[in-house]
Amino acid sequence: MAASMTFSPLHCLTFWLLLALLARSVAISLSSSTSRGGRHEHNPQHSSAYIVYADHVAKPSNFTTLEHWYTSMVGSLSPAANSTHFLYVYDTVMHGFAAELTVDEARRVSNTPGVTGVFKDKAVHLHTTRSPAFLGLDKDSGIWPDTDFGDGIIIGFVDSGIWPESASFNDIRLTPSGRAGRAGAPTASGSTLACATTS
């Protein structure tokens, strides 16, 4: 006579709980091994984009160009480091470079003579492209009209990428002197893109 097996609801519940715990432990094990082998945010050897500001006047005379100096800085960090870590060299408004560095490499670069700052690059999102309204400036009274609406003043620059068709790039509301700091660039649609100049 064969013994019949009956399962109570408690046995079924226990079975499913054990199966769920087993699946969870496998998932945790897989994710921790992936983070050890891959690029994980808490891994000190993980590289991220850093922006390195440099005093261009401090460039040692044995380097022919600033880029040569920057390449030497990154190349001295480790045998594996080379110019492929470079993302961009800044040489117009500021001097320095962007490179993929680990936290330790960024710390060591920051101690290099002539380096004035090292900052981890981070994405930020624009809140506005029309600052007067965003800052609550009133066009009829207060500091905004008292200063001729900031005519001729450029406070800073933001590299937000360019989408030429954006209404933020039209200069319809600018005074003629406000347009003086802009240069025209043709777009694919045939319109002109107004670009602020740094000279």
TrEMBL record:
Signal sequence interval, chain numbering: 1-27
Region annotation Disordered: where it falls in the sequence: 180-199
Residue ranges of every copy of the Inhibitor I9 domain listed in the record: 50-127
An example Gene Ontology biological process: proteolysis
Polar residues: compositionally biased ranges: 188-199
Keywords: Signal
Keyword Signal: yes
Gene3D superfamilies the record matches: Peptidase S8 propeptide/proteinase inhibitor I9, Peptidase S8/S53 domain
Domain of life: Eukaryota
Family annotation (InterPro entries): Peptidase_S8/S53_dom_sf, S8pro/Inhibitor_I9, S8pro/Inhibitor_I9_sf, SBT
Gene Ontology molecular function: any one: serine-type endopeptidase activity
Signal in keyword set: yes
Family note: Belongs to the peptidase S8 family.
Name recorded for this polypeptide: Inhibitor I9 domain-containing protein
Organism encoding this protein: Miscanthus lutarioriparius
Lineage, opening ranks: Eukaryota, Viridiplantae, Streptophyta, Embryophyta, Tracheophyta
